[in-house]
Amino acid sequence: WISWITYHAADRICVASPDDYQWVRQVFQIPPQQLRTQMNWVDHELFSPDAAAHYPDRLLFVGRLHPQKNLPALIAAIG
Is 0.85 topped by the overall pTM? Predict the structure, then answer.
């Protein structure tokens, strides 16, 4: 119920993928003009490979600290 109330009270709903868009539309019956798909929340111009070349000895991780992101594998790959 909390999700239903929240979705219906929102002026705009941003989701991360077309699948999320379809799911929200179907499950919560949200009109398409209220939904927006934002495929990637990272500014690719600011965090581009060209920008990274200026800092060859650094690593930037942008994401939530969650097992799904598998940070131990990232650390193992650079170690």
Answer: no
